[in-house]
Amino acid sequence: MYRRPLLTTLRTLFINGNRAYGQLFNVNEKPQHTEEEVGAFTKLIEVMGFTGPLKYNKWKIKIAALRMYTCCVERVNYDEFFDKCSLPDTMNSWFLVAQLHIWMCMVRMRQEGREGKYMCRWLVHSMWEDVEQRSKIMGVDSSHRKEGMRSMTETFYAAIFGYDEGVLSDDCVLAAALWRNLFSKECEDPKQLELMVEYVRKQMQFIDALDGEDLMLSGEVKWRPLAGGKPSEHPEGGHAHL
């Protein structure tokens, strides 16, 4: 299986906070003004659609985005998803499961205004940094890596569009989006689709109830299990054995 030899290396990339934060983000960035410091003119141009100071320090948002991404890759039992959904144990399957959870985080954070959208930007940035690192560690050459990244980028944004439509529609539309994107149009067992529709619905309900400010500053997300039980923490051996 492709994932197991990479465990130590990739944990170093994302759990070693100082090193990871230093690689992905500019830690010397100056603190941003608080909401109270935003003047009338700044508020006016924000209403007109121009950018202005964020409510929270950008550096803190970037750190929280990295933590949130880490929750998407460290707190998800990928083996269970592969088993329950009959997905092959491959880099592509890992990406499809990861992007589903990243999308759910993005849906929640979009509710937090410009700050939430800024966090989404860095959440996705963290994902692409990770994907590229994984490809390099697996020994994929530069040309194939670029081609693969291009393909994954197209897959990701198509999935985001489909999932957005699905979560705002009925279960049939959501099931169709999951069939196209998570299952790559190869699911023949309706129970698997039903399981995933139920998972997305209950997970979205759960994450929607989380405090927005806490998410913005901590990035901590717990996941509902596929079937019953309490939200997942750090399953021993159950997450992606990278």
From TrEMBL:
Name of a matching Pfam family: Ubiq_cyt_C_chap
InterPro entries noted in UniProt: Ubiq_cyt_c_chap (IPR021150), Ubiqinol_cyt_c_chaperone_CPB3 (IPR007129)
Domain of life: Eukaryota
Residue stretches making up the Ubiquinol-cytochrome c chaperone domain: 84-218
Family affiliation: Belongs to the CBP3 family.
Protein name, as recorded: Ubiquinol-cytochrome c chaperone domain-containing protein
Biological source species: Pagothenia borchgrevinki (Bald rockcod)
